[in-house]
Design brief:
With 918 residues, this protein is α+β, with helices and mostly antiparallel strands. It is 41% helix and 28% strand. It is built from 27 helices and 38 strands. The strands form eight sheets. It has a six-stranded antiparallel β-sheet with strand order 3-2-1-6-5-4, with helices on both faces.
Length: 918
């Protein structure tokens, strides 16, 4: 009975005998002998890696000519070894003596260290290949450690190398015998044959190679393999050459350079080490083939692209086997991987959308039952969940008896088509809606000029519409050229020109006769509609009714002309005005415009880049000091403030100072946006001189009057205190009252003269307004009728406290005089928008609208309950002057028969950080 081990041994021995017989064959070639040697040794010694090194022609290098089990990394590092190197293969070759080495030992040779690093084995055996005292190469094998067979391995290897060397020698001799026959074949080969050495130098070429490369044999034998390729591929060719020597074979296509500089596409099949140190390549010109292949590839790509674009797939159902086969495009349509194979009809049918199962199944059954074909749209659910719409066309193939045997069908993805159809329907609907709502008339005609469509605006413009052809067009639609007044002829219509010659017309201005005899002005435009080939399919016309627009344009031109005339008048008035005017526009940055008088006052003699800077240099306060930063009248106007009657001083170098009165105002749009500001400068030098004389006269008169008034008051007071006669005391008291009233009048006259002369001096200091108001109320004799209301916290203001007390006293006195007797009077104060606002409210008959207009003028007096109020009528005028001198404003509000309120504002200054206010 034969055991399993015997069977394995028998198989192993049979393989070994077969390899040995092949190696000893008289027909073997050196290359095959190397290969069989590797297989024989590997089989005999059970080696992991076996290498055969051949000796190069110059007998200086050992190169691997055949191997088994060698990784590429090993071949890359020890595939070629100098005969003089410190390697096991070189040492055995030099000593011509076999060796058995433990790779794990220290200080091993270079090839053994590389083998150990790559895990190729633990034991190395090497033996020289020698025949008739001639070194042919070295055989090296790496095996796992096997102590039991260690004594037999090396002798076996030595015996095998003797056999291999004899075979190699016989093969070499036999090869020499065949060289003549092969040389003839070499010379007459239809492909180029190139033989190179290890460095890639050409050592032999056949005549076909000379033809391909257009060079003589002598010229080519002076070149290397790298020289045959275009220069830009030199580095790549060198890298490929090294790889070729390691791998042993190479197949590639690429450009080759001829001697005349032209190139062709060559196909190379190369064999390394076909004899030690020699490498052969077969070169053929495949330019024509590559061109054909490229043309075929492009054709196939176009076909595949067309199929993908068309999204057409086909499938076939073998009814007997119930199997369905389909094309590659069906894989994509149904979300299947390429080459998914066959499936049953039921499985294939599962891709039909469940909602369409009944319709599709019925169509297939009708076809199988007798119909020749079917054509149907249905939805599918792809394997990846996508929902699509496909169109399926199918035919039934029957046998001779008429029984159905196959059903063949095509499916085409029409998802985008159906979506496009729905989109087109939607687009047409939108087009209709847009056409219906367009304010311009739109007419559409076919290629013959027959009107086929008109929108409501077109009917409205023409007062109705008839869809006529080109012949009655001129009769139905009458029009005249606006430019000449001549009637538009039938062939002059833009629609006719678009249809006849494909001409596009834009905005012909016509006067048309609309329904009811009415005439309108329209802009008539037309353009042809063409197909992709440029043929005219029709035309469209657009009528824009510009009747009202032209009327408005004429009116606008008239207004523009009137405005231009008005602006010229205004410019002339401004330029000749005796008052200096400076305008600042903000539309495109700050731009200043001055009239002649402003240029004279500011001393401008030429163009000024920084007008604002010039004004800051030359405009001063009345006392000669600089105007505070951002406090020029024009700057206040740009901030939206009103400036009225502000006295300033102009100082122009080389000229005497000029006193001016300035007023400024912002210029706003209708929406309230500040567009700029205007400031006026009025030379008041002569007025100042008159005011100075008036003030001197007033002061002199007031001073001269005060002395006798004081004397009268003193003497009358003495009479009231010393006289025993009641009548005399009463009359003396009347004299004192009249003298005091006369004194107040004299004081008002002095204040009036200072205010009008703008010589009112203020002693400003940070002041608590709430405390000031409380003090005024406490000093008043009728304080029990007065209430004080402070709303929120009041910031300190910089004021002349004595003058503001005078303002409050005047307003309080006014409330007592004109309010209803015994009614309360309310004084309130609050902070609002950077100001402190003080209001005095009383109840009474109020102020009429007529009196309100002159309320703050000089010498104006109202009427109280008891009749006319005594006095000069300067109280409110002085109040306004004192408040405006502080930079504030005073206003009055009155509801006749109910309340009257006088309020004034005081600006809150910006105190320096850290300053104490009190």
């Amino acid at each position: 009975m034969v055991g399993a081990n015997d069977v394995v041994f028998s198989d192993h021995a049979g393989a070994f005998a077969k390899l040995a017989a092949g190696l000893l064959s008289s027909e073997i070639e050196p290359r095959d002998a190397h290969r069989l040697a590797v297989e024989l040794v590997a089989s005999a010694l059970d080696a992991d890696v076996t290498l055969v090194y051949g000796l190069g022609g110059d007998e200086r290098m050992l190169a691997v000519s055949a191997h088994r089990g060698a990784p590429e990394a090993l071949l890359a590092r020890i595939g070629s070894l100098p005969l003089e190197s410190a390697s096991l293969a070189a040492r055995v070759a030099r000593a011509r003596k076999a060796a058995d080495v433990d790779i794990a030992a220290k200080d091993v040779l270079v090839d053994l260290r590389v083998a150990a690093e790559l895990g190729c084995g633990q034991r190395a055996l090497a033996a020289p290949l020698v025949s008739e005292e001639r070194l042919l190469g070295v055989l090296v094998c790496f095996t796992p450690r096997a102590e039991s067979g260690r004594d037999r391995a090396l002798p076996m290897l030595s015996a095998l190398t003797g056999l291999i060397a004899a075979s190699l020698s016989a093969a070499t001799q036999a090869t020499l015998g065949h060289d003549r026959r092969y040389r003839k074949l070499f010379e007459h080969a239809l492909d180029g044959i190139i033989v190179t050495d290890d460095e890639g130098r050409l050592v032999d070429v056949n005549p076909r190679t000379c033809e391909l490369l257009r060079a003589s044999r002598a010229e080519l034998l002076r070149r290397t393999w790298v020289d045959l390729k275009p220069p830009e591929l030199a580095s790549q060719v060198r890298a490929n050459w090294s790889q070729f020597l390691l791998v042993g074979r190479w197949n590639a296509e690429g450009p080759f350079r001829r001697a005349d500089g032209t190139t062709f596409v060559g196909e190379v099949t190369a064999q390394a080490h076909f004899i030690p140190g020699r490498h052969m390549g077969i070169l053929r010109d495949v330019t024509a083939r590559k061109q054909s292949e490229e043309a075929l590839r492009r054709s196939e790509e176009r076909l595949a692209r067309a199929q993908r674009i068309a999204r057409i797939g086909s499938w076939e159902w073998d009814i007997d086997t119930n199997e369905v086969a389909w094309s590659d495009e069906c894989d994509r349509l149904f979300g299947l991987p390429p080459g998914a194979g066959k499936m049953t009809y039921e499985q294939f049918f599962s891709f039909v959308h469940p909602d369409d199962h009944t319709e599709v199944d019925e169509a297939v059954r009708r076809a199988l039952g007798g119909s020749l074909s079917f054509s149907i749209h249905h939805r599918t659910l792809a394997h990846d969940g996508r929902e699509q719409i496909v169109h399926a066309d199918g035919d039934v193939i029957r046998d001779e008896a008429g029984h159905p045997i196959r059903l063949c069908a095509t499916v085409r993805d029409v998802t985008e088509q159906r979506r496009a159809e729905r989109a087109l329907q939607k687009s047409e609907l939108l087009f209709r809606q847009v056409l219906e709502t367009l304010p311009v008339g739109v007419w559409v005609s076919d290629e013959r000029g027959q009107l086929v469509l008109v929108n409501p605006a077109g009917r409205r413009i023409w007062g109705g519409a008839r869809l006529v052809g080109p012949e009655p067009f001129g009769e139905e639609h009458k029009a005249w050229w606006v430019a000449t007044g001549e009637e538009v002829k039938p062939d002059e219509w833009a629609l006719h020109r678009a249809i006849r010659s494909g001409e596009a017309t834009l905005n012909d201005l016509l006067e048309i006769e609309a329904g009811g005899g009415r005439h309108r002005l329209v802009l008539n435009s037309a353009a042809p509609v063409r197909d992709p080939q440029g043929r005219v399919l029709g035309a469209f016309v657009i009528n824009d009714d510009v009747t009202e627009q032209r009327r408005l344009e004429a009116e606008r031109e008239r207004l523009v002309d009137a405005l231009s005339t008005e602006r010229r008048w205004l410019r002339a008035v401004i330029d000749r005005s005796p008052i200096g005017i400076v305008l600042c526009e903000l539309e495109k940055g700050e731009r200043f415009v001055m009239n002649r008088r402003a240029e004279e006052l500011l001393g401008v003699t030429g163009p000024i880049e920084d007008v604002l800077g010039l004004m800051r240099q030359r405009v001063h306060l009345p006392d000669g000091s600089k105007v505070p930063h951002e406090d020029l009248s024009i700057e206040r106007g740009l901030r939206g403030q009103m400036v009225t009657g502000r006295e300033l001083l102009l100082r122009v170098p080389g000229k005497p100072d000029v006193s001016i009165l300035t007023s400024a105002s912002p210029i706003r749009s209708e929406g309230g946006q500040t567009l700029g500001a205007v400031v006026t400068y009025e030379d008041i030098t002569s007025l100042k001189e008159l005011e100075r004389l008036q003030q001197e006269w007033t002061s002199m008169v007031a001073h001269d009057l005060r002395h006798p008034v004081t004397t009268i008051k003193t003497l009358a007071g003495m009479v009231t205190r010393s006289s025993a006669d009641p009548t005399a005391r009463y009359r003396a008291t009347r004299i004192v009252d009249s003298a005091e009233r006369l004194g107040r009048m004299i004081g008002d006259l002095l204040d009036l003269s200072r205010i009008e002369a703008r010589r009112l001096s203020l002693v400003r200091a940070p002041t608590d307004v709430s405390a000031l108001l409380a003090h005024v109320i406490e000093a008043n004799e009728a304080r029990e009728r007065v209430t004080l209301s402070i709303r929120g916290e009041l910031p300190a203001v910089s004021i002349d406290a004595q003058r503001i007390e005078q303002v409050v006293e005047n307003l309080l006195s006014n409330a007592f005089k004109y309010g209803a007797p015994g009614t309360p009077i309310e004084i309130s104060a609050q902070a609002r928008g950077g100001e402190v606002v003080v209001a005095v409210r009383n109840q009474g008959p109020g102020i009429t609208a007529e009196d309100m207009r002159a309320l703050f003028e000089r010498f104006q007096r109202g009427r109280a309950h008891g009749g006319a109020i005594k006095g000069l009528g300067l109280g409110l005028y002085i109040v306004r002057g004192l408040v405006e001198a502080h930079g504030g404003r005073v206003v009055a509000e009155s509801v006749p028969g109910e309340t009257t309120t006088f309020s004034f504002s005081l600006p809150v200054p910006t105190w320096p950080e850290g300053a104490e206010v009190g």
